[in-house]
Amino acid sequence: MKKILKPNIGIGEIAIGTSIDFYLDKYNFEFVSIDNTDWEEYDFDGVEVYFDKSSRIIQSIGCRELCEYDGLNLIGSSFVGFCEKLNINPSEAISEEITLEQDETQTVYEVDNLSLQIWVDLNGLIKAVFVIFYE
């Protein structure tokens, strides 16, 4: 599966707001145990897919190693450059600083009108990209 970002839709062939069951026979996946009791995660070759346990509807799709947009791998690329490509004003995106393991700090930007959540390190480089289902 190609890991191409489709804002407001998903990554690759997997779309937010659809049933996880649609993809289970089409692609290889691995179950990933998470602590959240409402969601489960499957990994489709580096594409993280989180879905609601009861409805089985996909809530979030993310990549941390490879996520292409317009021929560019977003992981490791400049957040400001990505914003320029999509005509996003970074100062208008909702942001929150998060401290991760090993005291690493990242800023999480939410671009609601594109259903995107972008995790950015202190150097301004993208570390993860998520497409989020806003009901």
> For the report, how would you describe the main beta sheet?
8 strands, antiparallel
Categorize the overall geometry: globular
Q: How far apart are the first and last residues' alpha carbons, in Å?
A: 26 Å
The tally of helices reads 2
Describe the structure.
By secondary structure, the protein is mainly β. The chain has an eight-stranded antiparallel β-sheet with strand order 4-5-6-7-13-12-11-10, with no helix packed on it. The protein has a three-stranded antiparallel β-sheet with strand order 1-2-3, with no helix packed on it. The mean pLDDT is 92. The chain starts with a strand and ends with a strand. The longest helix has 7 residues, at 79-85. The protein has one domain (5-132). 8% of the residues lie in helices and 42% in strands. It is globular. It contains two helices and 13 strands; from the N terminus they run βββαββββββαββββ. A hairpin with a 6-residue loop joins strand 4 (30-32) and strand 5. It has helices at residues 21-24, 79-85, and strands at residues 5-6, 10-11, 14-15, 30-32, 39-44, 47-52, 58-63, 68-69, 72-73, 94-99, 105-111, 116-121, 126-132.
